[in-house]
Amino acid sequence: MFDSGVGGLTVLRELRRQLPDEATIYLGDEARMPYGPREPAEVVSFTREALRWFGRHGCKLVVIACNTATAVALEAVRDESAVPVIGVVRPGAAAALTATARRAVGVLGTTLTVRSGAYVRALRDLDPLVDVIQQACPRLVPLVEAGKADTDEAEAAVREYVEPLLTEGAVVRPAVDTLLLGCTHYPFLRARIEKVAGAGVRVVDSATTTALAVREVLSSHRLVRGEKGALHEVHATGSRERFAAIARRLFGEDVPVHETTL
Hints:
Number of domains: 2
Largest sheet: 4 strands, parallel
CATH class of the largest domain: Alpha Beta
Radius of gyration: 18 Å
Structural class: alpha/beta
Number of strands: 10
Strand order of the largest sheet: 1-2-9-10
Shape: globular
Number of helices: 11
Strand content: 5-15%
């Protein structure tokens, strides 16, 4: 599983819950985080490097647990890969459409994810009649990576991005009834986002549906692991201490983090 930093750990947690017998290896490219403001060609190059890294570790399936990398690199690397590669955009879109009652979905994402239009395409591929509003949130990933998800600073940033989705140009308020967290870092801010959005708006992410997609692919390719006692590894290209501190809060236990390079 690959992400630009700690965000993909939210997907890893759900994957380990649904598939407890599968061994996992996680790679967080914190040294080059955030990916959101970068050019698409850079992100494609970083994702290719990650796929080569996983190849050296004998992985049977790769999850790109980064919305930005999924949005701009998935198609290219999937065609080049010898193993199945799954992204998080389409599973996230499916989760949003299951949640929405009015077919009114707001997408919070990084600058590059929003610019790519990947969520708009995925949502409308699944439901051509859905209304989609996007909002780029460049301040959120750095706040999560700095361990500031539970601060007033984070809530102010969330308010800056979420409130326009609820009010601008709306005949019916809130303008959207579902907020899709289009970045795997954003579930760390879920409590703040739900507070700002209010009780009438459902907040969803791609973790559960991505894990379901992994289960289906493993089953269809006859790659399901049949033994117990799976091992789990976490690797990071940046600060191990900061990464481990955030992982500890998410998993409720110490998570050893290994340094690596791409």
